[in-house]
């Protein structure tokens, strides 16, 4: 996937998609899936259209599509998010659905600590009914001031009125992770999206996705990582990660899996313990952060582990990975334990 267009809402550019199948999101119930299963609606890849593709149910469509409703009511689909989080925005994408899209949709949420929602689960409205158009993206920010305050969401229910097809559902949010519940000495992957880490900023992401850098597991191919364009001017590329909590770093892994002719020649890492400010001010301040990992040579398609090479700079909340001069990194893993206080 190429760099996100600049006209995307800020939440879609800077936050992870909690409805990502790569991260583990899954539809758990749907009123109808006659023409196309709800699993397609959560695909991480952009929707496609195959003009000559048909199956036993009719025209093959890349998304979730219900049959034409001939009775009262409406269709809905319940999705277990990959990770519980504070939802900031959504996209109800009707790409390639032109004469078969729903005229309207709404979104509800609930939080279930373990398992799936049941008859006693408390659902609440995240997004009131909105009009939809065919073959279009519908971006909507979630206004928590109208919802009585922020709260984590583990499941969402997409309602479509009355029937039709949705190509993709994207749900962007901040991971809900209670780091304070951990023992200060517990070993933790501080940079993992699973523990609340997020990408703050990067200077370039021409290929791949910057969010893949902190995703679980090793990259499955060269597209599953952060890769910059070929640099034709002096300097180096960089990316900043906010850790899931303030921590003492004990070990770092820089994984260049699948990057063989386009891995960076070397890398270094700066870090700091930040309080306050905005993402933009953090970018400015990061130029002067202390060096956590001095410049290290990198090789192709390999996990590079650093422990003895790390400088002791105390607790940190953010790290800046510098790659020299450019190239691709599949994963960055920063291990350590939660700092006290």
Automatic annotation (TrEMBL):
The keyword Hydrolase applies. InterPro entries: Allantoicase, Allantoicase_dom, Galactose-bd-like_sf. Pathway: Nitrogen metabolism; (S)-allantoin degradation; (S)-ureidoglycolate from allantoate (aminidohydrolase route): step 1/1. The keyword Disulfide bond does not apply. Its EC number is 3.5.3.4. It comes from the Bacteria. It catalyses: allantoate + H2O = (S)-ureidoglycolate + urea. Keywords: Hydrolase, Purine metabolism. GO terms for biological process: allantoin catabolic process; purine nucleobase metabolic process. GO terms for molecular function: allantoicase activity. Residues 24-174, 196-338 form the Allantoicase domain. Belongs to the allantoicase family. This is Probable allantoicase. The gene is alc.
């Amino acid at each position: 996937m190429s760099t996100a267009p600049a006209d995307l809402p800020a939440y879609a550019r800077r936050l992870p998609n909690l409805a990502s199948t790569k991260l583990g999101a899954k539809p758990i119930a749907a009123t109808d899936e006659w023409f196309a299963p709800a699993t397609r609606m959560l695909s991480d890849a952009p929707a496609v259209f195959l003009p000559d593709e048909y199956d036993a149910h009719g025209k093959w469509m890349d998304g979730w599509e219900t049959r034409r409703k001939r009775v009262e009511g409406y269709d809905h689909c319940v999705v277990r998010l990959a990770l519980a989080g504070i939802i900031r925005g959504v996209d109800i994408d009707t790409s390639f659905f032109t004469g078969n899209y729903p005229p309207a949709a709404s979104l509800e949420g609930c939080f279930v600590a373990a398992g799936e929602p049941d008859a006693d689960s408390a659902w609440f409205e995240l997004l009131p009914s909105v009009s939809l158009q065919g073959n279009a993206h519908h971006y909507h920010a979630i206004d928590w001031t109208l919802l009585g305050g922020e709260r984590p969401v583990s499941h969402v229910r997409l309602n479509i009125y009355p029937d039709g097809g949705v190509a993709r559902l994207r749900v962007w949010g901040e991971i809900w992770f209670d780091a304070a519940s951990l023992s200060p000495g517990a070993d933790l992957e501080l940079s993992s999206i699973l523990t609340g880490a997020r990408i703050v900023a990067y200077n370039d992401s021409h290929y791949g996705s910057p969010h893949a850098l902190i995703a679980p597991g090793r990259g499955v191919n060269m597209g599953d990582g952060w890769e910059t364009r070929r640099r034709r001017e002096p300097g180096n590329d960089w990316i900043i990660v906010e850790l899931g909590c303030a921590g003492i770093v004990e070990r770092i892994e820089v994984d260049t899996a699948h990057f063989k002719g386009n891995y960076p020649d070397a890398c270094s890492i700066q870090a700091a313990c930040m309080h306050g400010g905005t993402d933009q001010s953090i970018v400015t301040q990061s130029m002067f952060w202390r060096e956590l990992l001095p410049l290290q040579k990198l090789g192709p398609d390999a996990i590079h582990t650093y422990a003895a090479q790390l400088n002791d700079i105390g607790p940190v909340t953010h790290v800046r990975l510098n790659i020299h001069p450019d190239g691709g990194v599949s994963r960055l893993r920063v291990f350590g334990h939660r700092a006290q206080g």
